[in-house]
Amino acid sequence: MSMLDAYVRGSHCSRRRDKTPGSGSSRSSFSFLFVVNELEFYNDSGADIFRDTWYNDLPPRSCMGYTGERAGKVLRFRDGEVEEAAGYVWYRDELRIRGHCFSNLGEAPGYSEAAVFACNPHLPLVVIRDDPLTLNDAKSSMHALHFFHPRHLPGLSQATTPDAVLPHGGAPVKYVAGRNPSWMPALVPSVYANPWLEPPPSRGLGGELAIIIGLMAFSKSGPNVEDVFLGTHARPGYWHNSFWSSRAAPSYYPRSTQETPRGFYIGVFCDPENAEGSSREAIHGFEWNSAVVQEMPR
Question: The organism sits in which domain of life (predicted)?
Fold first, then answer.
């Protein structure tokens, strides 16, 4: 019997209107849970290296290209701040089996998942909108990072991929919507800068949460990726009050084509302790109707 069998499992995001822990008396706070796991690649001499037409090393084409993952702590985003989600753990029985986020309250319902990879300076970011540790063939799921530019929110860049189901307003492109975003190059490399002469001022970074959190993970400088979000004894977490405080380019990007790609799996979950403020509708609205990362005042 696995550890997970000891817990009662849920199946859907709750939509109850009753007051729950994490809910306000008059208005529910907004929250969700997430986990960031660093993916571990099979790098022995017999490894099947997957390359594109221009010989850029890509993420493994199947789950057999990984030896596993370094599981992070389960974290909670609540009203612009990140904290450890006490009592929650991430658990995966083995490779090729989907993992779960659970506590003694039961399983946290999944909202979305993705893996984000930094390959080399010439192929900065690749996204798999799935769990790569469960895929027998990930080739068709790999896409370069794209941005959707919503017409009703000019200057807002929404991180996504070409295969995503998007609102009306054109196809996603490989550059951000606004000029001089405060989160470039800290979250998005400068190669994605808007190429036009007079783009609107940047209004922040939105879009798919799993992708955005994956971009954040590359700012890690030590063994524990959650330090990016929770901080260390020397500094607070970078994602604070819905701003991204770091201005430096991520230290964890591969520096050359000779290095192996690096990647993270990100799972996003509804918060079982905030039924009203962590519904699928609430999280979707946060992604597509607001700036997940707001512009820092200059």
Answer: Eukaryota
Amino acid identity at 125: L
Task: State phi, psi for 230 to the nearest 5 degrees.
Answer: -95, -20
Q: Tell me the two tokens of residue 216.
A: 């954040």
Can you list the residues of the chain whose pLDDT is less than 70? 1-27, 45-48
How many angstroms separate the CA atoms of 157 and 178, rounded?
7
Q: Provide the angle, in degrees to the nearest 10, between the axes of the packed helices 280-288 and 209-217.
A: 60
Rg (CA), the chain: 19
Q: What is the pLDDT of residues 73-123, one digit of tens each?
A: 999 999 999 999 999 999 999 888 999 999 998 999 999 999 999 999 888
Ranges of each domain in the chain:
3-9+29-275
With a CB cutoff of 8 Å and minimum separation 6, the contacts of 187 are: 205, 212, 215, 216, 244, 250, 293
Q: What's the pLDDT score for residue 13?
A: 43
What distance in Å separates the CA atoms of residue 82 and residue 245, rounded to the nearest whole number? 13
Tell if the pTM clears 0.70, that is, is over it.
yes
Task: Let me know how long the chain is.
Answer: 298
Neighbours of 28 (CB within 10 A): 19
In order, the DSSP letters of 104-162 are TTEEPPEEEEEEEEEEETTEEEEEESS-GGG-S--GGGEEE-EEE--TTSTT-EEEE-T
Task: Give the three-class secondary structure for 236.
Answer: strand
Measure the CA dihedral 132/34/174/169, to 10°. 110
